[in-house]
């Protein structure tokens, strides 16, 4: 018989935990191990060799994932032709982390650069189609300093302009 939970939030978990769908969850786990030094915590096999549930730890955070099951309405970014979600990862050395992710098979969608909000930051898309932003925090800035730095950039070409939305 199961024991009642001793804590409403399990040990090692945070109140918000990403749970993603991947076309090829086993390959995604392998990628995350190579790209982000993930540690596999759990894997629950399902029908037809698919993964019903898995958990990995990247840094101090857990991420859950599973294979796609279109018959249950569970679709990944490839079936959806993209994702509106970005998973954000803080690291000690963003340049090294981006190189590691690319070596593991990620595609750079935004090269690493120093950003107006105080992070050195870049973005990749993993082989499953999930978008990741990777950053190292460099400067603690006040909201006024962030606003001032953003204004120095000049017009953000196409930002918010529906006429310049990619097809």
Outline the structure in words.
The protein is of the alpha/beta class. Helix content is 22%, strand content 32%. Helix 1 packs antiparallel against helix 3 (94-104).
Key phrases:
4-stranded mixed beta sheet, 167 residues, single chain, globular, alpha/beta, 4 helices
Low-confidence stretches: none
Number of strands: 8
Global shape: globular
Mean pLDDT: 92
Oligomer: single chain
In short:
The protein is of the alpha/beta class. The chain is built from 4 helices and 8 strands. It has helices spanning 25-36, 77-80, 94-104, 143-152, and strands spanning 19-22, 39-45, 51-58, 61-67, 86-90, 107-114, 119-125, 131-137.
Question: Any chance you could write out the topology, listing elements then pairs?
Answer:
Layout: E1 19-22, H1 25-36, E2 39-45, E3 51-58, E4 61-67, H2 77-80, E5 86-90, H3 94-104, E6 107-114, E7 119-125, E8 131-137, H4 143-152
Parallel strand pairs: 1-4, 5-8
Antiparallel strand pairs: 2-3, 3-4, 6-7, 7-8
Helix pairs in contact: 1-3
């Amino acid at each position: 018989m199961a024991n009642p939970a001793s804590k409403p939030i399990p040990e090692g978990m945070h109140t918000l935990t990403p749970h993603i769908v991947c076309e090829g969850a086993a390959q995604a786990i392998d990628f995350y191990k190579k790209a982000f030094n993930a540690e596999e915590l759990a894997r629950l096999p399902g029908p037809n060799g698919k993964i019903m549930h898995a958990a990995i730890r990247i840094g101090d955070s857990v991420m859950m994932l599973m294979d796609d099951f279109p018959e249950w309405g569970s679709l990944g970014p490839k079936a959806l032709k993209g994702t509106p979600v970005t998973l954000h990862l803080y690291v000690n050395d963003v340049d090294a982390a981006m190189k590691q992710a690319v070596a593991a098979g990620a595609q750079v969608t935004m090269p690493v650069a120093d950003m107006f909000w105080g992070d050195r930051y870049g973005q990749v898309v993993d082989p499953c189609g999930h978008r990741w932003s990777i950053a190292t925090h460099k400067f603690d800035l006040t909201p006024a300093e962030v606003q001032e730095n953003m204004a120095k950039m000049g017009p953000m070409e196409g930002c918010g302009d529906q006429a310049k939305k990619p097809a």
